[in-house]
Amino acid sequence: MSRALEERPEPHPRYVVWELTLRCDLHCRHCGSRAGHPRDQELGIDEAMGVVEQLADAGTFEITFIGGEAYLYRGWLQVVRAAAERGIRCTMTTGGRQVGEELCQRAADAGMVGMSVSIDGTERVHDHLRNLKGSHRAAMRALAHIRAAGMTPMANTQINRDNLPILEAHADELVAAGIRGWQVQLTGPMGRAADTPERLLQPYDMLELVPRLAAIAERIAPEVTVEAANNLGYFGPFEHVLRRAHWKGCHAGQYVLGLEANGDVKGCPSLPSGPYVGGNLREQTLAEIWANAPQLRFTRDRDTSELWGFCAGCYYADVCRGGCSWTAHTLLGRRGNMPYCHHRADELARAGRRERLVSAEKAPGTPFDFGRFDLIDEPLPAVADSF
Cα separation of 367 and 145, whole Å? Predict the structure, then answer.
């Protein structure tokens, strides 16, 4: 925990992920938000400036601007500059298609300190997932432009069945490109990714994936810091390598906030909109939504009574509280039972068992939508089957 957070331990939106627009210049096969066209009634620049003031007053330390593509929002540099002038650390996550020398310099001049480029594999794999030939070359060029502008170059990768076989080669390529940080997470069963469930990993794949990621992290340190995102879990012998501190539960609505482009507020940017939007900034202040909306308060107010399945009886239940709320809910229809857990897969394997996800309901085809999976508990075969 940082010194700043220790000085203000009460729940507050310390880290904010702000979707400036859902407009995007890519059409990725695994996009959880189905980005492409703008949302209806996205916030105007004057409204966005007001949001910056509310975030600063709430004690926000960092904003990561996303989309769609954040740079496709008219006035995005004004928003960055306003936030930076209020002392908020500004970063951006981008697909990198138009992140050139001029854009990076203007972003740095506005006060942005780093950009994370979404790169999901070596060229063939990345271009397939991003649904555009040449997108990998553009993303790698973007890293060079970010570094040249004096910002910190970072990368983020969604791990799925397409890129699982080439993770080591992918990591080596990113290191050679000069990244300083690499966030790894699982492709979640939401949006377009929900349309191709065969792309998702299985819970038992954690037994292969987590040790491999830990080995990569140890090999490329200290030049590059590897950080496991919240839906890649948990505990076990590799936790200190991939998190540097053990998992302490979902921080949605405690220290994390997600803002959608139309002013909707969620406790975490990844949470599906339907069940988790707690209010809209055109109708209520951020302070009111943060304090009162049950959709944001659930991690502050809950106890272990909502846990079910394996998580209900887990040794780490009091601390973990069921892992990533987003992934659990979009897989199984409610939070409190998170299959993508290394500790869980290991415990089941020791008992000669494994869990397998089977698609049961399709997603309806709207932004941040999801279907439903059945979770099958079965004997561990001698040779693990694929999806």
Answer: 31
Overall residue count recorded for the chain in this entry: 387
Q: Which residue has the tokens 């109708």?
A: 283
DSSP output for 231-271? TSB--STTHHHHTSS------BTTTEEEE-TTSEEESSTTS
Amino acid making up residue 380: L
Q: Is 104 helix (H, G, I), strand (E, B) or coil?
A: helix
Return the bridge partners of 112, or none. Answer: 90
Can you say whether the dihedral through the CA atoms of 202, 204, 206, 209 is positive or negative?
negative
Distance CA 241, CA 228 (A): 9
- pLDDT confidence of residue 385: 53
Examine residue 114 and say whether the peptide bond preceding it is cis (omega within 30 degrees of 0).
no
Q: Which of 74, 109, 107, 78 is nearest to 93 (CA)?
A: 107
pLDDT of 380 above 50: yes
Q: What is the dihedral of CA 135, 139, 142, 147, to 10 degrees?
A: -170
| CA–CA gap between residue 346 and residue 327 (Å, rounded) | 19
C-alpha 188/C-alpha 199 separation (Å) is 10
What's the CA gap between 170 and 175, in Å, rounded? 9
Strand partners, 93: 116
User: b vs e for 115-141, b when ≥16 Cβ sit within 10 Å of the residue's Cβ?
Assistant: bbbbbbbbbebbbbbbebeebbebbbb
CB 357 within 8 A of CB 375: yes
**Orientation angle between helical segments 342-350 and 206-220, nearest 10 degrees:** 130
Q: At residue 281, what is the residue type? A: L
pLDDT at 274 > cutoff 80: yes
CA distance 92 to 95: 10
CA–CA gap between residue 235 and residue 289 (Å, rounded): 33
Report pLDDT digits (tens) over 158-209: 999 999 999 999 999 999 999 999 999 999 999 999 999 999 999 999 999 9
Rounded Cα gap, residues 249 and 240, in angstroms: 15
- For residue 43, how far is the Cα from the chain centroid? 23
The pTM of the whole model exceeds 0.70: yes
